[in-house]
């Protein structure tokens, strides 16, 4: 899943080498924390959050086969 998020986000940003995805897992959920350069945060979120929503939709669909709830957090 980490590779999927990186594959989606890296072409969108100016600094793809600074894209990082951390995984935090517990009993009922998996949280992926996406970190990008400050100047790229707007590109990842998009107008009215459309790009972020699309990324989350793909990630949630890819993870639907798992028994845990999946969350994607975007930060700088």
TrEMBL record:
GO cellular component terms attached to this protein's record: cytoplasm
- Which GO terms fall under biological process for this protein? cell wall organization; peptidoglycan biosynthetic process; regulation of cell shape
Can you tell which superkingdom this protein's organism belongs to?
Bacteria
Q: What are the UniProt keywords, alphabetically? A: Cell shape, Cell wall biogenesis/degradation, Chaperone, Cytoplasm, RNA-binding
| Cell location | Cytoplasm
Pfam families attached here?
KH_KhpA-B
Q: Just give the chief location class.
A: cytoplasm
Q: Name one GO molecular function term.
A: RNA binding
Q: Which HAMAP family match?
A: KhpA
Function, as annotated, reads: A probable RNA chaperone. Forms a complex with KhpB which binds to cellular RNA and controls its expression. Plays a role in peptidoglycan (PG) homeostasis and cell length regulation.
Q: How does it assemble?
A: Forms a complex with KhpB.
Q: Which PANTHER family match?
A: RNA-BINDING PROTEIN KHPA, UPF0109 PROTEIN SCO5592
Family according to the record: Belongs to the KhpA RNA-binding protein family.
Its protein name is RNA-binding protein KhpA
- Species for this entry: Neobacillus citreus
């Amino acid at each position: 899943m980490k590779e999927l998020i990186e594959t989606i986000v890296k072409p969108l940003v100016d600094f793809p080498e600074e894209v990082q995805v951390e995984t935090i897992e517990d009993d009922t959920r998996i949280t992926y924390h996406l970190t990008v350069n400050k100047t790229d945060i707007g590109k990842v979120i998009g107008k009215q959050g459309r790009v972020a929503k699309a990324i989350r939709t793909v990630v949630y669909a890819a993870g639907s086969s798992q028994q845990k709830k999946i969350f994607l957090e975007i930060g700088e």
